Amino acid sequence: MTRTSLLAPAQKVLDGAVPRVDFHMHTTWTDGHDTVVGMHQAAISHRLEAILFSEHARRTSDDWFGNFAAEVRKVSTDHCRAWVGAECKVLDFDGGIDTCEAIIKASDLVMASVHRFPDPNGNNMQRFADVNPEAAVEIEMRLMLAALDNPAVDILGHPFGISRSRFKKDPSEAQFRAVIEKAAATGVAFEINSQYHANPCDLVRWCREAGALVSLGSNAHRAGEVGDIVRALEGQSVPAWSIETARREGTLP
Ligand SMILES: [Zn+2]
Ligand SMILES: [Zn+2]
Prior knowledge:
This protein is α/β, with parallel strands linked by helices and 253 residues long. The chain has helices at 3-7, 36-45, 62-74, 101-106, 136-147, 161-167, 173-186, 200-210, 228-233, 243-250, and strands spanning 21-22, 50-56, 81-89, 109-113, 155-157, 189-193, 214-217.
């Protein structure tokens, strides 16, 4: 299956429908509270048609990632298709991501997300306290634009999510659009994430105008959060982002 065919159901959102998919969730394999089976059952109970287990994985995670992938591939696909994914952090301003060939091979879709900022030389990850908040949006943008050139990347996870959650800084519409335009040019799906994005409908519109692929994710770490993105697009109230999310991301691979 290709990136485009796996992500096809989500593209219905560009025509004004609310697709019943959730392509961002975590389980007890990393920092989630529920198992693969538990999350999948929640997806079925919310009548979702497809989900992506976008598990946190770094280059040293190949000792467990194969077993995780095997568990996902064992769940029944009668009611809700389950795909194997890896959420890998962006490492530097050259588009490097923290993963390895075995994990890329085992995954149906690879998501690149900014979780930390490298120092100005692009080397070690900085503590959040050492980052100038006024520069956060620019730094996150540079990291994302670089990651979009990485051919292993299928989805750009929670764009600008760290600026918002960690530094309370929101990008301008022009900055969002610049990232979306590059995603369109490189064929990478731009994720609309109900925990990090307060304006999912604006993002849908900008993706439509740019001709960008979209991915839809809830960032679920509990069964009860599965499908939050669907509820957000349907206009129901879900938290735009939480302190818990911000804390979690700061300590993650
Ligand atoms: Zn993330
Ligand atoms: Zn995540």
